[in-house]
Amino acid sequence: MADSLPALAFLGAGSMGGAILRGVVASGIRVDGGITATNRTPEKAAAFADLDGVTSIALSEAADGNADAVSEARIVLIGVKPAMVPDLLREIGPHLADDAIVLSLAAGVTLQTFADNLGADVRVIRSMPNTPSTVGKGVTGLAAGAAASAEDLALVHSLFETVGAVVEVPESQIDALSTISGSGPAYVYLLIEELTKAAVGMGFSETDARTMVEQTFIGATALLDASGEEPSELRRRVTSPKGTTERAVAVLQEAHLERTFADAAAAALARAKELAAGA
């Protein structure tokens, strides 16, 4: 991770933009020029007003807030809802610095949309963070536009490292990445739900079932992270020959999980393509 970041502007510091903003502040990384955040209402702006080094603007009270925010920023994060992006880009375009990096948090909005509204020479990078970014354990996919340099990408990479891991992909892979790291937390929560139901079915209270299952998932992933071992090796160590786990894993494998997960990811990708086409 870099020692410092240049001035940042968060336009629409909602749940994901706000998580990244807080992650930057919590990391302690130096931000040369500070951080400006804009939100529509004073109530939303108040959520960031007390953060060290952050200027929080309510657009209802400062009509030129977005223009003022981007004029002083090197990295401009677009965190508004996807449908609002084109209008926002046209609003801020004349006020961007020549070396500004425009960073999209808007799902489904293509680099071409940014080029159409800002000009092809503006440096744009698409990002796809996931919800564990809110606790510093995220995965973010990055896809750089043609005008973005290697240095621009490295700066944005450092920004997202404050909230987790970063994967750089071509834009053609962003939707596929979203089916794995973007949707993936939902798959994990589903597994936790179903194993909890199994525990309750074996006579455990809801409270004890949740404790056993949730802490097992948290502990297993923490061990995977700390050990540096392959998941298959850690699974082997739990699975004694002719033991109880071996019998259980055999049942799971008979369910063809490999095909199920591949089919699930394919279904998510097909839906992403439908959404991109306006369906």
UniProtKB/TrEMBL annotation:
EC class (word): oxidoreductase
Annotated keywords: Amino-acid biosynthesis, Cytoplasm, NADP, Oxidoreductase, Proline biosynthesis
A Pfam family annotated for this UniProt entry: F420_oxidored
Pathway(s) where this gene product acts: Amino-acid biosynthesis; L-proline biosynthesis; L-proline from L-glutamate 5-semialdehyde: step 1/1
InterPro entries: 6-PGluconate_DH-like_C_sf, NAD(P)-bd_dom_sf, P5C_Rdtase_cat_N, P5CR-like_CS, P5CR_dimer, Pyrroline-COOH_reductase
Occurrences of domain Pyrroline-5-carboxylate reductase dimerisation (ranges): 171-275
Subcellular location: Cytoplasm
Pyrroline-5-carboxylate reductase catalytic N-terminal domain ranges (all copies): 8-108
PROSITE patterns in the record: P5CR
Keyword presence, GTP-binding: no
GO terms for MF: pyrroline-5-carboxylate reductase activity
EC number: 1.5.1.2
Reaction catalysis annotation: L-proline + NADP(+) = (S)-1-pyrroline-5-carboxylate + NADPH + 2 H(+); L-proline + NAD(+) = (S)-1-pyrroline-5-carboxylate + NADH + 2 H(+)
Keyword Transcription: no
Family stated for the protein in its record: Belongs to the pyrroline-5-carboxylate reductase family.
Function: Catalyzes the reduction of 1-pyrroline-5-carboxylate (PCA) to L-proline.
Protein name (database record): Pyrroline-5-carboxylate reductase
Lineage start: Bacteria, Bacillati, Actinomycetota, Actinomycetes, Micrococcales
